[in-house]
From TrEMBL:
Pfam families: K_trans, K_trans_C. This is Potassium transporter. The lineage of its organism: Eukaryota, Viridiplantae, Streptophyta, Embryophyta, Tracheophyta. Its main location: membrane. It is found in: Cell membrane. GO terms for cellular component: plasma membrane. It comes from Daucus carota subsp. sativus. Keywords: Ion transport, Membrane, Potassium, Potassium transport, Transmembrane, Transmembrane helix, Transport. It comes from the Eukaryota.
Length: 755
């Protein structure tokens, strides 16, 4: 059973002595700790010299500190070389971003006064001022509780390095607990500068217990993924309808002013405006925000000014709506109708989720400032002004505002966010249990109440966003389900190291100059697709790199931390693994030439560092021969120092003498700069072989995998995998299209995975 819990028959490795030079036997990479090179086990029939060497290895493993995986060491070095660059948080920059948020984030919420009271009072007739005050009080506290308190002061703090939305919350949770259904997590991922992993402290057993439960139960992992996909799907479903509702609501104001402006004219004008709005999206968020920010700023200030005018002109007593008692009276007088009116009241927070979902384009302070000091007060004044007007003209509600259908998915997204933020509070923030439970009890109860009200709108058109959301949910979950099964199948069928040693350095075929980049999803082990290439091709390249494009749960991976390398098999095999790591916001813009150049540079750096490590290791072996020599006496308290000395020193340019511990004392080693790394003949040979292969060109070896359900699978699984998932794979862009690689540089072979 592998670390990821996937059964891997036939992929276990029993490693014996490996000859890597004339009469020389040693570790393949000096740092293999996973399935590619497990701990040494010597055969009983080995020769005496190999047996002695095996005992030497055991003695060194006992006396020296445990070696780190080469991927982990490399990750620690590059991660410590610089800090993660946060967004510019200067005062003027924050103010400028706050201004831009008005044109991007708050457009839907800003147009809500056009239709909120129209929908509310289409369910409840205005019999007295109490009805107006009750509805107004309901709107005021809805805006104060959900957007202001929940999002501005709580949810925005649960961002993932400045990124927001349901996937950002899921990514944040995946970093603190291994809940990703795709089992490709590595310790080296935690060394990415933007990872910022802070595990729960041992004193808080609750956080540790939650983490263990999430990691051990696959059903909870699936439930969490479904919750995230559901929230994302509802955002998309809501986003399909919200722009149309907002534009039509604004244009509907012309119906009472222009004679003959009927419904057909309303629809045509709205379509023209929508086409214009979507056509400028390609210019980017920054330009769109700067374009619409002045108009939305004028809109919000106009709402506030008109509200103040209406309050003083019609009825200043409308401020009594601040008293929440009027909400109770509103429900008492109207009972079931008041509950139905909640479906219209929830429209006042349309677009509130955008405050968190669009966080990646702005910053937390900018969104907080814009809502707290502009949007919130202007909306309150606008609704109070409308309330004052309705108290004098109660029959004008349906005539003035457009009666719209509430886009239901909005409330569903809020419920998902509440659940995920609660998990973040318990698992990551380690909030007091009482306070953490108060969050879902307060806000979850309010949102469930609104959900129960808007469900009555399903037959009036509310089914449409739910239908969109359901379709997107099915697509995303089917893709994830099929990908996980395919990955597990690859793990089960990966080639054993014993078989690779039997093939020898020629891999059982002819090796020709060049670099073959064999793409695989495996982060460990040798993919079975290599065997297919060896069977189908008359020759294979002199240098083969298994490239794994891996997406880690961080927004962005710095370019200098992109590649991690390790060696597979002895040196004369010229086999390497490259893990190319990308964040979920990284866009693979580099063309294949830039990718190849960066890969070769990283591989050369790895080879030089490996040579330095082995030279340092040789120095430590020589130190073992002088255990009886004591240069400096050691105190009894120093006995544990030996376990903390790294085998790879990060300061390679230091001219100071390096020291290491022995049982007798501290022995000085030569400065690292004097270690003849470049003069090592084996390094020179490997570098020359790498340059020769580079000059011969790159070939992309891609496997076209066909995933099929086993014959004894359930009918539903066969339907999903053989038809739905297969349809998605056929109609998604392949790896060649994503990498923009010329077809003449690509070799593809087919393989069927039975899942």
């Amino acid at each position: 059973m592998d670390d990821d819990g996937i059964e891997d028959g036939g992929s276990s490795v029993r490693l014996t002595g490996i000859s890597v030079g004339a009469g020389e036997s040693r570790w393949v990479d000096g740092s293999e700790v996973d399935s590619e090179s497990p701990p040494w086990s010597l055969d009983e029939d080995l020769s005496a010299n190999k047996e002695d060497y095996g005992h030497s290895i055991r003695r060194r493993l006992i006396k020296k500190p445990k070696r780190l995986d080469s991927l982990d060491v490399e990750a620690m070095e590059i991660a410590g070389s610089h800090g993660h660059h946060n967004k510019d948080d200067s005062t003027w920059r924050t103010v400028a971003l706050a201004f831009q948020t008005l044109g991007v984030v708050y457009g839907d919420m800003g147009t809500s006064p056009l239709y909120v009271f129209s929908d509310v009072f289409s369910k409840v007739n205005i019999k007295s001022d109490v009805d107006v005050l009750g509805a107004l009080s309901l709107v005021i506290y809805t805006i104060a509780l959900i957007p202001l308190i929940k999002y501005v002061f709580i949810v925005l703090k649960a961002n993932d390095s400045g990124e927001g939305g349901t996937f950002a919350l899921y990514s944040l949770i995946c970093r603190y607990a291994n809940v990703n259904l795709l089992p490709n997590r590595q310790p080296a991922d935690e060394q990415i500068s933007s990872f910022k992993l802070k595990l729960p402290t041992p004193e808080l057993q609750r956080s540790l217990h939650i983490k263990e439960v999430l990691e051990q139960k696959s059903s909870l992992k699936t439930l969490l993924l479904l919750l995230v996909l559901m929230g994302t799907s509802m955002i998309i479903g809501d986003g399909i309808l919200t722009p149309a509702i907002s534009v039509m609501s604004a244009v509907s104001g012309l119906q009472g002013e222009i004679p003959g402006f009927d419904t057909n004219a309303l629809v045509m004008v709205s379509i023209i405006i929508l086409i214009g709005l979507f056509s400028i999206q390609r210019f980017g968020t920054s330009k769109v925000g700067l374009t619409f920010a002045p108009a939305l700023a004028l809109w919000f200030f106009s709402l506030g000014a008109i509200g103040i005018y209406n309050i003083f002109k019609y009825d200043t007593s409308v401020v009594r709506a601040i008293n929440p008692v009027y909400i109770y009276i509103f429900f008492k007088n109207n009972s079931g109708k008041a509950w139905s009116a909640l479906g219209g009241c929830v429209l006042c927070i349309t677009g509130a989720e955008a405050m968190f979902a669009d966080l990646g384009h702005f910053s937390v302070p900018s969104i907080q400032i814009a809502f707290t000091f502009v949007v919130f007060p202007c909306l309150l004044l606008a609704y109070m002004g409308q309330g004052a007007y309705l108290m004098n003209y109660p029959n004008s509600a349906n005539r003035i505002f457009y009666d719209s259908v509430p886009g239901i998915a909005e409330v569903g997204v809020m419920i998902v966010s509440t659940a995920l933020v609660t998990l973040v509070m318990l698992l990551i923030w380690q909030t007091n249990l009482f306070l953490a439970l108060c969050f879902p009890l307060v806000f979850g109860s309010i949102e469930l109440l609104y959900m129960s009200a808007v469900l009555s709108k399903i037959m009036e058109g509310g089914w449409l966003p739910l239908a969109f959301a359901s379709c997107f949910l099915c697509v995303m979950y089917t893709w994830n389900y099929g990908s996980v099964l395919k990955y597990r199948s690859e793990v089960r069928e990966k080639i054993s190291m014993d078989f690779m040693y039997e093939l020898g350095s020629t891999l059982g075929t002819v090796r020709i100059p060049g670099i073959g980049l064999l793409y695989t999803e495996l982060v460990q082990g040798i993919p079975s697709i290599l065997g297919q290439f060896l069977l189908d091709l008359p020759a294979i390249h002199s240098t083969i790199v298994f490239v794994c494009i891996k997406y880690v749960p961080v927004p962005v991976v710095p370019q200098e931390e992109r590649f991690l390398f390790r060696r597979i098999c002895p040196k004369d095999y010229h086999l390497f693994r490259c893990v190319a790591r990308y964040g979920y916001k990284d866009v693979r813009k580099e063309d294949h030439h830039a990718f190849e150049q960066l890969l070769v540079q990283s591989l050369e750096k790895f080879l030089r560092k490996e040579a330095h490590e082995l030279d340092l290791e040789s120095s430590l072996i020589e130190v073992d021969q002088y255990d009886s020599i004591s240069v400096k006496s050691r105190e009894p308290t120093d006995t544990l120092e030996e376990l903390t000395i790294p085998l790879i020193l990060h300061d390679h340019n230091s001219e100071k003498a390096e020291t290491t511990s022995t049982e007798g004392g501290i022995v000085e080693l030569p400065p690292s700069s004097s270690i003849p790394g470049d003069e090592d003949p084996s390094l020179e040979y490997e570098l020359s072989a790498l340059w020769e292969a580079t000059n011969s060109g790159f070939t992309y070896l891609l496997g076209h995998g066909d995933v099929r359900a086993k014959k004894n699978s359930f009918f539903i699984k066969k339907l999903v995998i053989n038809y739905f998932y297969a349809f998605l794979r056929r109609n998604c862009r392949g790896g060649a299209a994503v990498m923009r690689v010329p077809h003449m540089n690509i070799i593809q072979v087919g393989k069927t995975y039975m899942v």
